[in-house]
Amino acid sequence: MNCPNLINPIRDTFGRPLHDLRISVIDRCNLRCNYCMPAEDSHKSYNFLKKPEWLTFAEITRLAKIFISLGVVKLRLTGGEPLLRPGLPDLVRQLSALSGVEDLALTTNGILLSELASELQRAGLKRLTVSLDSLDDEIFRRMNGNKGHASEVLAGIEAAQKAGFTPIKINCVVQKGVNDHTIIHLVRYCKKAGHILRLIEYMDVGNQNGWRLENVVPSRELAEVIGRKISLVRLNAHYRGEVALRYGFADGSGEIGFISSVTQPFCSTCNRARISTDGKLYTCLFGWKGTDLRKLLREGASDIELRDIIAQTWQKREDRYSELRSKLIQNPHPPKIEMFQIGG
Ligand code: SAM
Ligand code: SF4
Ligand code: SF4
User: Fold this and answer.
1) pLDDT tens digits for 227-261?
2) What is the distance between the alpha carbons of residues 47 and 61, in angstroms, rounded to a whole number?
3) What residue spans define the domains of the chain?
């Protein structure tokens, strides 16, 4: 692993190093994706945070610096919809100036990207992932609560490409009987435009999406279906802990990735920590109890105290939800953190 500051990353109980940090900058969103914050029956339980509850940019930057001192080399901004956070380019500027950051990325639904892509690029953002579940506008809207149009996201992607973000990653959550029949169009679009499509198995994140195993399209099946139309070859992982299983187009014109958290869990190499908008540290996407870093920050904890708490939390980490899913689903447990509170 390439650690510019020669920092030996801390390790959890299974020896997994701390490598990535995902920071949720806002829990609100301008879409209502059915797999994340479905609009129909759960809007009352969103319980969005009030502005004073959000971590400030100074708090986020201070924490990021401490995480870097413990081994983190990759930062990703997420949400909710991160482009809704006022002044986001300022945060990007502050984070990109930190020494030891090899990669600074952002995941967005792309609706506001046309307006912000150039400014984010100038501020030092290195990579962009844009979510787009279908090119078919009717299906796209059905999946996002009838809020945004595919054309808006496509315009955002184009603006990002013009601003210099290449290659752009496109995230697509695949739901059986909903958008699976349109994936091939997305593959062709990404192949032609030079984007890296990542097809994500629909996951049981949070407590509101009514997830059922029958709605998941296993990546292996999907790869076979795509492979019948466009010839694919398996590619090696770039690095240990890469979550996407990579396939190249046989004609050499690019690649796609499959994120198979349900059918092929990758907990054994999971090296990601996550901070929610209100400053809680989670060591698993499916966690239900976070370590309250905001409280420590606002009570005047020193960097050393914060570093110790973060290190202890990671060193005690035993999470492997996806490997234990079938068992954990059957046993009662407290409500999980919602995807829109913690980011993907
Ligand atoms: N709003 C931004 C977006 O949608 O790109 C960033 C936050 S969103 C929570 C991050 C990623 O999580 C998105 O790519 C989204 O598709 C993915 N995601 C959300 N809920 C999911 C679920 N139930 N299963 C799989 N992926 C999910
Ligand atoms: Fe919003 Fe992203 Fe969740 Fe969709 S997946 S509702 S765009 S936060
Ligand atoms: Fe990591 Fe938790 Fe996902 Fe496993 S279930 S890969 S531990 S976030």
Assistant:
1) 999 999 999 888 777 888 999 999 999 999 999 99
2) 25
3) 20-342
